[in-house]
DNA sequence: ATCCCGAGGG
DNA sequence: CCCTCTGGAT
């Protein structure tokens, strides 16, 4: 594992390389981030952003989404993949948000996980970006891969373990932005197939760095 | 063939 | 732990 100094150095290097820790999903309302994140399962954010303007203008309110014809939602979101489950979840979650939570996105992990189609990744993103909860760790595919390569985790790919191990090391007020920056770094430099180690600002602390790449 | 800011079920 | 759900890009 890393020393606390290494952790802080990695946090600082990422902050310097990616000054704004932004979510690349486009959204206006809280529930739009929730559903955009559901759509982002095994799909690029870029493609999600191509369908959500159509989805959220065709069904501009939570009430409209709750009453939407699932097959029409399926058509709109088809290109994001897993479209049957995603469409079913979006309509069902809209109904639950209205009926159980008064139309407001809940602010606790426990309640978020009760919503259909909301798992730990989506819940943590909401907690971090909407409610600014300290200690939120979004263990998505980029976070899991890069944390493993760096040696911040023991190599597990199980999201709850990655969450736990990162949360134990990161300053709580930094964890959410840190995860956003890992995503940006995962796209630009530390790609899954062919990581660009030569141009990586994190290589002084990375267990994975191999000069021949 | 592998990957993309996953979730749910066995 | 495993598997399935699905389309698009590389």
UniProtKB/TrEMBL annotation:
The keyword Transmembrane helix is annotated on this UniProt entry: no
SUPFAM superfamilies linked: DNA-glycosylase
This protein's record includes keyword Signal: no
Assigned EC number: 4.2.99.18
Free-text cofactor note: Binds 1 [4Fe-4S] cluster.
Domain HhH-GPD: 39-188
Top-level class of the enzyme under EC nomenclature: lyase
Superkingdom of origin organism: Bacteria
Keyword field: 4Fe-4S, DNA damage, DNA repair, DNA-binding, Endonuclease, Glycosidase, Hydrolase, Iron, Iron-sulfur, Lyase, Metal-binding, Nuclease
Reactions the enzyme catalyzes: 2'-deoxyribonucleotide-(2'-deoxyribose 5'-phosphate)-2'-deoxyribonucleotide-DNA = a 3'-end 2'-deoxyribonucleotide-(2,3-dehydro-2,3-deoxyribose 5'-phosphate)-DNA + a 5'-end 5'-phospho-2'-deoxyribonucleoside-DNA + H(+)
Gene3D superfamilies: Helix-hairpin-Helix base-excision DNA repair enzymes (C-terminal) (1.10.1670.10), Hypothetical protein, domain 2 (1.10.340.30)
Cofactor(s) the protein requires to work: [4Fe-4S] cluster
InterPro entries according to UniProt: DNA_glycosylase (IPR011257), Endonuclease3_FeS-loop_motif (IPR003651), HhH-GPD_domain (IPR003265), HhH_base_excis_C (IPR023170), HhH_motif (IPR000445), Nth (IPR005759)
Residue ranges the record marks as coiled coil: none
One protein family per Pfam: HhH-GPD
UniProt GO molecular function: endonuclease activity
Positions of [4Fe-4S] cluster binding: 190, 197, 200, 206
Family: Belongs to the Nth/MutY family.
Function recorded in the entry: DNA repair enzyme that has both DNA N-glycosylase activity and AP-lyase activity. The DNA N-glycosylase activity releases various damaged pyrimidines from DNA by cleaving the N-glycosidic bond, leaving an AP (apurinic/apyrimidinic) site. The AP-lyase activity cleaves the phosphodiester bond 3' to the AP site by a beta-elimination, leaving a 3'-terminal unsaturated sugar and a product with a terminal 5'-phosphate.
Name assigned to this protein: Endonuclease III
